[in-house]
Structures are given as C-alpha cells and as structure tokens.
Amino acid sequence: MSGHLLSLASGVLPEFPPEQTVAAAIAAGWPAVGLWVEPATWTAATASEVRSRTRDAGIVVLDVEVVWLKPGADDPDHLRIIDAGAAIGARNVLVVSSDPDPQSTADKLRRLTEHAAERGMRVCLEFAAFTEVKSLAAALDILERSHPDTGLLIDPLHFARTGASPKMLRGIDPHRLPYAQFCDAPASGPSPQDVPAIIHEALDLRLDVGAGGLRLRDLIGALPASIPLSIELRSKALRDAFPDATKRAAALLDATRSGMAALVR
Length: 265
What we know:
Layout: E1 6-8, H1 18-28, E2 32-36, H2 44-57, E3 60-69, H3 76-87, E4 92-97, H4 102-117, E5 122-126, H5 136-145, E6 151-153, H6 156-161, E7 180-182, H7 195-204, H8 216-222, E8 229-231, H9 236-241, H10 245-264
Helix pairs in contact: 1-2, 1-10, 4-5
C-alpha cells in the first residue's frame, strides 16, 4: 500500500457542490478531499457543514481552488478563497496565473502567501501550457522572485505536456512541494500549440494511475517521500460511467489504490 495521503480532487466531481463532494469522499473512504470554492456562492453555512463533516469523519481537506491571477490589481475574492479554506482547515490553496508579467505574478503570490501563512495554509503555484506560467522553469523563476513559503504544484499531465522530465525536479527544495496532483494519460498528447486540445485533454481525458503512459514511477521517485497526492482525474468517461457522486468517488479510489500499489512496489 502506498504511504501517500490520497485526496479526492474537486475536479473529479465538478457538477457537485462542496457539501456533496465531502459527503461522497467520506462515504467512499477517501482519507482526504479537495474542494472548489466559489466566493459568490460559498457561505458561512457551507463552511460550517463542511467543517462539521470533515471533523467528524477525520478526513483531511488537502486543498481548495482555484485562485486565478489576472493582470491588474489584487482581487479581493482571492483572499476570500483563502479565508474559506482556512475556515474548513484546508492545508493548501491552488493558484494559477493569467498575468503575463512574471514579477507581477510573483508579487501577488507573495501577498497571498503571507495572507495564507497567517491562517496556517500554503499557496501553491501550478503551471500549464494554457496559463501564463507555461513551464517548470518559468514557475521556478517566479517562486525565486516571490516568498520562500510559496509552493510549487506538480500535475503529471501538465508536467509532461510542457516538456518537463522527472530529473528536472532534482535540487528543488522539498519545502517547495507540500503536495502534488496525480493522474495518468497517454505518453503523447496534443500539439503544444493546440491550446483548445490541451484544455480538452486536461478537463475530459485523464486516465487512472497506471492506465496511461506518463512516467509516473520516475515522477513519484523524484518527489518528496510520502508527499500527499491529489488525484486529479478529470474524465468525461468517469463522469458518464458514474453519475452518482459516491459511486464515482469509490470507483476512483479503488482504481487509484490498485494503480499506486503497482507503481510503488
């Protein structure tokens, strides 16, 4: 059995509200869960129910998402997402950026990191071809300009599709890697220039751990030992096969445990 804390990512159940996502994760036996926080609809009642359910079940809230940085002034909703996460005991908040200015992104991340740290949370930057942080190198450059506590979030799909390899993680301070996402996909994907196809793959075509051709064994070996893993399996096939939230969560947990057992043995 893998020693990694496995978390049900919010993207597995995109059509369900946070309360149902938590209920499904608990019923299916997940030890951790990630939640989508929409400031316009997130209420004190939402936080209270989520906090009560997770506390009673002993389940970890690994992360909340998504803070999407954009050009211009800081967005107050970003602080609200962090505050919502803090209210339910979340450990991390996922951040992506559409701000083309690396220094501006770094400065915004610094302010968010300081706000999150006061609430016991980590801010983690994810890179992807369809964001303005398009590579591991670009993400590391921004982190160096930002705050020493700002984290780096690795998603195996984005990692592979942006040309990164596991050996490129050598030398990165483990403190920068509080958790990672995990999934599988075919070894080859869309053209790097075909952004709509890349987004479609990321949202609908991910595969169970071990069912594709990504270098997951090498990747897990390059990441910190026992790093928590958010199972980011956005998949239309999975959604279609399991419209019920709990059954979908249970099927994914079974497949993930099987895939992880084969991967780390």
